[in-house]
Amino acid sequence: MKHPLPALAAAVCCLATALPAAAQFQKPEDAIKYRHSAMTLQAAHFGRVAAMASGRAPYDAQAAAENASIARTMSTIAFAGFAPGSEKGAPTRAKPDIWTDTAEFKKYADQLQTAMAKLEEVARAGGGADALKGPVGDVGKLCKGCHDDFRNEKLSN
Ligand code: HEC
Fold first, then answer.
1. Contacts 24+ apart (CB under 8 A), 49-56
2. Ligand 1, atom 37: nearest CA belongs to which residue?
């Protein structure tokens, strides 16, 4: 595939058909942009659900379900951006351990996807802000755990 589409547009266009593992990058820089984009969107949409869970935003069942669904999708594609060879090539906070301790990194990614699926299920059930608290907390712990272990404080360059 040699389409000159920006990575994010490519990701959005092909969500329905392409498996995350099929994401291909011409340059390490493209993979880095892709994961930054997916992580940013994941954070934005998860953040909206988390704000309802904590009472910082009013509860809205439909918005909770929609945002949880987008966050879940982003959690499934974000990790395709940690492609082999993309340890450097653009400023990144990814630790090199991601490519050496891949099993541990993948464990966090898998657990996140399970926790996101649970959050979406609960959000779709529409049980109110309190019902979101547990699943939001579980997701948040995994974001933090992986960032503590696999993300540097500072950009590489
Ligand atoms: C399996 C590990 C892992 C999990 C789980 C994870 N992240 Fe990340 N995240 C990373 C790494 C590594 C980076 C740094 C990527 C880089 O700079 O190339 C990152 C970067 C980010 C960024 C910064 C993006 C940018 O443009 O620099 C945000 C925001 C973010 N993550 C949000 C989240 C949120 C929210 C969650 C949970 C819903 C989450 N992450 C879960 C590993 C993870």
1. 49/119, 49/123, 49/132, 49/136, 50/136, 50/140, 52/129, 52/132, 53/129, 53/132, 53/133, 53/136, 54/133, 54/136, 55/129
2. 143
